[in-house]
Design a protein that fits this description.
Length: 135
């Protein structure tokens, strides 16, 4: 298979994006578990753990995946908006998975991972971390 440099770079970016996602999911879960263990309520623990995961995702994807040298305020706003959109799409996709495909609720999110990961990557690559060339 002979991939052009641009295609290889895009594949490498997607791999890095997914790897960071796996690490962030693990970090978020560990934080959630620790917050619960110290007596913080479930909803607050989830929100705090999710926030920690989003911050690490922003930092690592900017620097490692997309080679952004400096994170600007507008990137951060776009990042938050993109994550809210992806979360909303994931929640929207859950309904047919559960109610039409009759997948048990505890496994339904697994069926949303591929489309939401691709959407998140595309938003990140072409909108959030898009760096315009100097004129």
């Amino acid at each position: 298979m002979n991939l052009s440099f641009a295609k290889r770079e895009q594949c490498l970016q997607f791999f890095r994006f997914c790897l960071i996602g796996l690490v962030n999911t693990s970090v978020s879960y560990i934080n959630y578990y620790l917050f619960i263990r110290i007596g913080i309520g479930m909803a607050v623990s989830y929100a705090l753990a999710y926030l920690v995961g989003m911050i690490s995702s922003l930092l690592f994807n900017a620097s490692w995946t997309f080679a952004v040298r400096r994170i600007h305020w507008n990137m951060t706003v776009k990042f938050v908006l993109a994550n809210l959109l992806v979360a909303a799409c994931g929640e929207w996709l859950l309904r047919p998975v559960v109610y039409q495909l009759h997948i048990p609720v505890q496994y339904a999110q697994l069926f949303t991972l591929i489309p939401t990961t691709v959407l998140n990557f595309m938003l990140s690559r072409f909108w959030v971390f898009r760096v315009r060339a100097m004129a």
